[in-house]
Specification:
Helix content is 21%, strand content 43%. By secondary structure, the chain is an alpha+beta fold. It has two domains: 1-30; 31-142, no CATH class.
Length: 146
């Protein structure tokens, strides 16, 4: 093998590694981190069990088909991530900053943070996250106790 052909092989390997790294970064960029929350009890997210614990909440790159009369950003899939793995996902209602006062009865959480509220009757849990003024509201069913 000549020095020139060896150099071509090294350059090709470098290009392949760079494109794999770029693809990985693009995939990660599609998921925007919103906040970290602690869910106090087991819940159901999108039909699957999500145990009590601390989760990073992030926006998923999965598309949402808006319903008639709804804007394209009115709902987003959010993922609940623990130890680097997606443990569950659920559809979140997104309230734009201009609409928060008309919708929210309480003061929103601080920017970049979230609150978890057990709702009346203890049948549902609301995860409420504030990201740059946009409010992400996720409603989860409390998991039945065994």
């Amino acid at each position: 093998m000549t020095a020139k052909s060896r150099w071509v092989q090294i350059a090709a390997c470098g290009l392949m590694a760079a494109s794999v790294s770029a693809a990985s970064l693009l995939a990660q960029a599609g998921s925007q981190s919103l906040a970290t929350v602690r869910i106090p009890q087991g819940v159901t997210a999108n039909g699957q069990a999500l145990p009590a614990g601390t989760y990073a909440v992030r926006v998923s790159a999965d598309p949402v088909s808006p319903v008639v009369g709804q804007g394209p950003d009115a709902a987003k899939w959010v993922e609940f991530v623990q130890a680097g793995q997606v443990r569950g996902k659920e559809l979140a209602s997104v309230v734009a900053p201009a609409d928060v006062k008309a919708v929210a009865k309480r003061t929103p959480p601080a920017n970049g943070s979230g609150v978890v509220q057990v709702l009346r009757g203890a049948e549902y849990v609301r995860v409420w996250v504030n990201h740059n003024g946009s409010q992400y509201l996720v409603h989860l069913s409390v998991a039945p106790r065994s």
